[in-house]
Amino acid sequence: VQLQASGGGLAQIGGSLRLSCAASERIVRTVDMGWVRQAPGEEREFVASISKLGDAIHYGDSVKGRFTISREGAENTVYLQMSSLKLEDTGTYSCTADISYRKVLAKKGAYWGQGTLVTVSS
Predict the structure, then answer these.
(1) Could you give the CA distance from residue 8 to residue 117 in angstroms, rounded to a whole number?
(2) Could you report the per-residue pLDDT of 15-42, keeping only the tens digit for each?
(3) Is 96 helix (H, G, I), strand (E, B) or coil?
(4) Rounded-to-integer distance, Cα 14 and Cα 38, Å
(5) Smallest Cα–Cα separation from 46: which of 119, 122, 109, 120?
(6) φ, ψ at 114 (rounded to 5°)
């Protein structure tokens, strides 16, 4: 299984970006998926997760109310809509997947994408 993240780039404070995570196979409905980010010199931070059926969604405290994770039933893709961006949202965002939702929440998913860089500027 391969995960390909895209959609990163440069945004201004208060702006929006949408990240996509495409799976190499039609696994979206068989695994739980999530996003993790890492800023330079910082530890990885849990951002959001969505269960295989979409009936469970969780967000990190720092992004609640601003970010939305979703998945398209007919596509191999999970999205992360980021709004009201802040400087502290800057970092490399990676998507992850696992058959265990608990592992995704713990940032211990078995599968990882290569990451996409998000830079928020003033």
Answers:
(1) 5
(2) 999 999 988 766 656 788 999 999 989 9
(3) strand
(4) 20
(5) 109
(6) -85, -15
